[in-house]
Amino acid sequence: MKVVVPVKRVVDYTQKIRVKSDGSGVELANIKMSMNPFDEIAIEEAIRLKENGTASEIIAVSIGPQQAQETIRTALAMGADRGILVQSDDIVEPLGVAKILKAITDEEGPTLVILGKQAIDDDSNQTGQMLAALLGWPQATFVSEVTPDGDKARVVREIDGGLQTIQINLPAIVTTDLRLNEPRYASLPNIMKAKKKPIDMKTPDDYGVDISPRVKIITTVAPKGREAGIMVESVAELVDKLKNEAGVI
Amino acid sequence: MTILVLAEHDNAELKDATARALTAAAAIGGDIHILVAGKGSKSVADQAAALDGAAKVLHCDNDLYAHGLAEPLALLITGLMANYDAVVAPATTSAKNTMPRVAALLDVMQVSDILSVESADTFTRPIYAGNAIQTVQATDAKKVITVRTTAFAAAGDGGSASIEDIAAAEDPGLSSFVGEELSKSDRPELTSAKIIVSGGRGVASGENFGKYIEPVADALGAAIGASRAAVDAGYMSNDYQVGQTGKVVAPELYIAVGISGAIQHLAGMKDSKVIVAINKDEEAPIFQIADYGLVADLFKAMPELAEELGKAS
Ligand SMILES: Cc1cc2nc3c(=O)[nH]c(=O)nc-3n(C[C@H](O)[C@H](O)[C@H](O)COP(=O)(O)OP(=O)(O)OC[C@H]3O[C@@H](n4cnc5c(N)ncnc54)[C@H](O)[C@@H]3O)c2cc1C
Ligand SMILES: Nc1ncnc2c1ncn2[C@@H]1O[C@H](COP(=O)(O)O)[C@@H](O)[C@H]1O
User: Is the CB of A172 under 6 A from ligand 2?
Assistant: First the structure.
C-alpha cells in the first residue's frame, strides 16, 4: 500500500519566537526552520510500515515556499521514496491544505495518509480531520499506536481521560501524537541518496484549488509577559507566602 | 445570530468545559442552543438545560454517539447547521477531533482555540505555543469555533431551557469503538482543578510521583499534572501531560516540581494565577515565570512541604 505523508516547514521548536513590533506577524528572518515535529513522527511511522512489509511506497508532500523542498529532502533522507512540493509563497490555511491534499490523494490512491496532529506554528489541529471529511474517509486522530490489519486498522488514540481504541476502515487518515514513535535521524549515506530521489514541483492551480484565506489576520502581538516573582529560602517561608501573601491555600 | 454549542460529556456528567464554551457563545451573542449527542445521556441533557444562557437543548440519544466517534457526530452537527450561524465547542480532545470535520463538510475555515471574542466574527487566538496572539476575523458565512476553556469563566446554573429530542443522522459506518482505558482518580480533574501539583523529569520515577508529589497534592486537595518528559519516561500516563500538546490549565495555584520550564510546557500553564517552582537548578527557566521560586532538592523539599501543609490545616 501507498502512504502519503504531508510535512510542513515550520520554525524549529527550539527557536525563540519574536513578534514584530508593527503587529504584522512573527519574525522569520534568520530563524532556523525544520520539519514540524509531529510530521517527523508521521514519516517515521510510514517508514516502519514499509520496513515491516505493510507499506510499499512513501510520498512526502509539502505545501509552502520553495524552501519547503528542504523539508521534503529531510523526509526523503529519513526514508520516504519521493516528494511533491506544492509551491505557494502565501500562507495556505488548513482548509486549503486539505483541499490540495485531497486532490493529491485522489491522484495517488494511498491507503493511509499520515499527518501530524498539529503544526506547531499555527497550532490549528485541523488539517487531517478536514482531509478525512473531504474524502469521506474515517479518521484516527492523536494516535499513539496504529496496527493495519487487512482492510481495517486498529488504532489507539490519546484522549482527555486516557486512551481510546477504535477500529477504522481503510483507506483512512491518521494524525500522530508524540508517543507514537521516536523519529530516526537520517544517516549521511541516506542524506546523499535522498538528493537523487525525485520531487515533483506543483502549484495550487495545478490542482484547481482556491487558496485565498477565509480567516483574515488582523494583528499579531506578543502575549502579556509574566514577571519573575521572588525566591524563597525555605519550605516554611513558601507556605507562609502562599497563605498570607497570595492567599491561595 | 443562532449558535449551537456542542456539549462535552461522558453520557453521565456534563463537563465544566461546556459551561465555558457557553460563555464564549454568549459573548458572540444571539440565541444559543446546546447539542447533547450521546447514549443514555438523559441526565446530561438535564444538566445542560440548567445552564444559564441556553434557550434550548437538542438531545440526540443513539448508539452512534455513545463514544463520540467523529464521523457520525460530524454528520449530525453538519445536518443541523442549516439552522445555525455558528457552532462553538470547547477545545477538548473530542471536539478537536470532530469540529474540523464539521468545518470541512461546511466548507468553512475553523477558528481554533479562541481566547476572546472581540466581535461576532473577530477573535483572538494563540499561535506558536502561545508565544504570539493573533486577532483574526472569520469571513465565512458560518463560523466553526473551538474555545480555550481556561480563557472563559463557566456559565452558572439557574437556566431552564427546553429539551427537544432529535433524530440521529445516518451511520457513515467508517469506524467503530473497541475500548477505552481511562485514568481513575479521586482527585479533581486537571483542567478544572483549583490547585495542581505537577512533576517533571526531576521526579525520576512513577513510584516517586506516589512518594513525593501525591502527599502534597493530598494535603492541598490538588490535581496532579506532569511534563511531557515525565510522561514519555512512563512515570505518568498521557492524560496528565500539561503543555502545548497536552492539557492547558489555569488553576489558582500551580506547583511545578522538577520541571525545567520549556516553552512547550509553559504554553499549558503560564496563565495560572500563582506559580510556584521547586527546582534544584537556580538557572532553570521556570523561575523566570514563577511567583515563588525555591531552589531545593525536591526529594528533601516535598516531604517538608507535605508536613508543613499538614501543620497548617
Ligand atoms: C512538538 C513538541 C511538543 C511538546 N509538547 C510538550 C507539552 O505539551 N508539555 C511538556 O511538558 N513538554 C512538551 N514538549 C517537551 C518540552 O520541550 C520539554 O522537553 C519538556 O517539557 C521537559 O520536561 P521536564 O521539564 O520535566 O524535563 P527537563 O527539561 O529534563 O527538566 C527536569 C528539571 O528537573 C530538575 N531536577 C532534577 N532533579 C531534581 C531534584 N532532585 N530536585 C529538584 N529539581 C530537580 C532539573 O534541574 C531540571 O530543571 C514538547 C516538545 C515538542 C518538540
Ligand atoms: N503547508 C503544509 N504542508 C504540508 N503539510 C501540512 C501543511 N499544513 C498542515 N500540514 C499537515 O497537517 C498537520 C496539521 O496541521 P494544522 O492543522 O495546521 O495544525 C501537520 O502536522 C501536517 O502534517
Answer: no
Q: Which residues of A touch B295 (CB under 8 A)?
A: 231
ipTM for this prediction: 0.96
Residue the block writes with cell 486532490? A103
Query: What is the C-alpha to C-alpha distance for residues A13 and A41, in angstroms, rounded to an integer?
Result: 14
Check if the beta carbon of residue A142 is closer than 8 Å to that of residue B93: yes
Residue (of B251, B52, B269) closest to B154 by Cα position: B52
Name the residue with the closest Cα to ligand 1, atom 1: A37
Give the type of residue at A210: D
SS3 B273: coil
Q: Give the global pTM.
A: 0.96
CA-closest candidate to residue A199, choices A90, A64, A11? A64
What average pLDDT does the structure give for chain B? Answer: 97
A5 and A39 Cβ atoms separated by less than 8 Å: yes
Q: Give the 3-state secondary structure percentages of chain B, helix then strand then coil, rounded to 5.
A: 35, 30, 35
Strand B86-90 and strand B292-295: pairing? unpaired
Give the one of A130, A134, A139 whose C-beta lies nearest to B71's C-beta: A139
Burial of A32 (0-12, 13-18, 19+ CB in 10 A): exposed
Contact A95 B74 (CB under 8 A): no
Q: Are strands B195-199 and B223-226 parallel, antiparallel or unpaired?
A: parallel
B108 and A214 within 8 Å at the Cβ level: the answer is yes
Amino acid at site B174: L
Whether the CB-CB separation of B235 and B226 falls below 8 Å is answered with yes
Residue type, B40: G
CB contact under 8 A, A162 and B238: yes
Q: What is the pLDDT of residues B167-225, one digit of tens each?
A: 999 999 999 999 999 988 889 989 889 999 999 999 999 999 999 999 999 999 999 99
Shortest distance between the Cα of B277 and any Cα of chain A, in A, equals 9
CA distances (Å), origin B169, targets A108, B7, B59, B80, B279: 31, 17, 13, 10, 53
Contact B112 A17 (CB under 8 A): no
Question: Which 8-state DSSP code applies to residue A153?
Answer: E
Q: How far is the CA of B277 from the centre of ligand 1 (A)?
A: 13
Cell digits for A213?
484565506
Express each pLDDT in B55-99 by its tens digit: 999 999 999 999 999 999 999 999 999 999 999 999 999 999 999
* Best CA proximity match to B289, nearest among B309, B263, B310, B308: B263
Nearest CA in chain A to B146: A124
Nearest ligand 1 atom to the CA of B259 is 25
